[in-house]
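Hi Y.,

Following your request, here is the sequence exactly as I used it, all 314 residues.
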Amino acid sequence: IRALGLILCSVAGAIAPHLLLTSGLAGATALPGADGSTLDPMVRGTESPLGQVVAPPPTPLPAGVPAPPLPPLPAGVPAPRLPTPEGIVGLWPAADADIGIGHLRPRDLAFLNQPDWTSSPYLEANWLQDIALPIYAEPGGEAWGWLVNGWLVPVGGEPLAIGEDAAFLMLHTYYALFSFPVMEIREDGWFRFQYTPAGTAWAHRDHLEAGAVALTLETWEDRFLETGWVEFRNHGVSQPLRGNPNREDPIVTLVGPDSFIEPLAFDGDWMRVRVTQPTDGCTFLPGARSQEGWMRWRNQADGASLIWFPPKGC
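Below is the corresponding structure, written out as tokens. Let me know if you'd prefer a different format.
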């Protein structure tokens, strides 16, 4: 694959979600836009938290945009294929990466708990071979394309093989499963998720069952509670444990990086935790002591998560 950054536009000329080939933006060449102009992927847009160039988001529409009917599949959708693993990036988020408010994953995860789970066809990113999800440049607009059969299929464009023709950004969220970070969820069913290193798209809850593998949205709070173990993303910095979810409340103790933090409940930007320290990973060291209290898990200014978790556990 040539080192090439590709910007795709809708036929109406509006900026569509960006797409990065697996070689990234270095050495990218200019491409013709939908209106015949030349698009330079190195200057379009602004800098994202992931260090990539992203398009300015479309003007938000008022909440309450009705659910769209399921659009027809584009003609000529290729047969199902497994994503190319080398083109799935971002699995462990950097400390300053925006991971949104939750993730998009298969709804039924029973295959992860089967005795023969290692032979499941849906491990890691392989579940993408059996989904069908229309994506949009903005809520209420025309469908921009589909994620279907392990391909990204723009309406009116050539299918792009996930992980081979286009790099996809996913997070490692279960022992053997990757999922898409969800940046926002609206009350009218529209949600925005990140699917390439520099691109987000909109989709609707009503379309999550369009493929053979049904999908669901899960908040980070629910995922963190289920994992039972979280870590602060800014490693090496001690964090205050307080008696109540209030920054003015006295500090009970400082929680160092050699601690085991078990989330017990979430209340806004705060989480109630049981902290055991000192530890070595999951191993409690001699003299380890447990305390309960409250810690801020989300940045008050921008709502960014300050914590993550080891997806493979102890």
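Residues 220-227 form the longest helix (8 residues).

Thanks again,
Q.
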